[in-house]
Design goal:
With 114 residues, the chain is mostly beta strands. The strands form 2 sheets. The chain has a 5-stranded antiparallel beta sheet with strand order 1-9-4-3-2, with no helix packed on it. A 4-stranded antiparallel beta sheet has the order 5-8-7-6. The chain has one domain (2-112). It has one helix spanning 9-14; strands at residues 2-6, 22-31, 34-42, 48-55, 58-62, 75-79, 90-94, 99-103, 105-112. It starts with a strand and ends with a strand. The longest helix is centred in the N-terminal third of the chain and has 6 residues, at 9-14. It is built from 1 helix and 9 strands; from the N terminus they run E-H-E-E-E-E-E-E-E-E. It is globular.
């Protein structure tokens, strides 16, 4: 089964990303359109995978965890568009303070093997 979410904080919460805690990749890229963050996580049993890209990332803060592979807590995506910050629509933060940033948009895919 595959689920996708694009620029939808409510839809993000339905993905149950806490069930997919093992970080497999965390890539920051500087592109012409701005900085992007791409991450891939996997479930402990290897049957589920999350792939997400955050667009036009600003104020990226990362505190790499001391253990490998890194296990993530809840990743929250909060809609802050009403705050009318220039080109900022979402606040993203990992519950254990591994990373946090602001971004203009995102798209995510969860793949679950049934």
């Amino acid at each position: 089964m595959m689920e996708t979410v694009t620029n939808d904080a409510v839809g993000w919460s339905r993905l149950r990303t806490i069930d997919i805690p093992i970080l497999r990749s965390f890539v920051v890229r500087h592109e012409q359109s701005g900085q992007t963050v791409r991450l891939t996580t996997e479930s402990v049993d290897g049957w589920s995978r999350l792939e997400v890209t955050f667009l036009e990332v600003v104020d990226l803060q990362v505190s790499w965890p001391p253990f490998v592979p890194a296990h993530l807590d809840v990743i929250s995506v909060r809609d802050v568009a009403a705050d009318q910050l220039e080109n900022i629509s979402y606040r993203v933060a990992e519950g254990e303070d591994f990373f946090a940033f602001w971004c203009s948009g995102f798209f995510a895919v969860v793949i679950r093997e049934d």
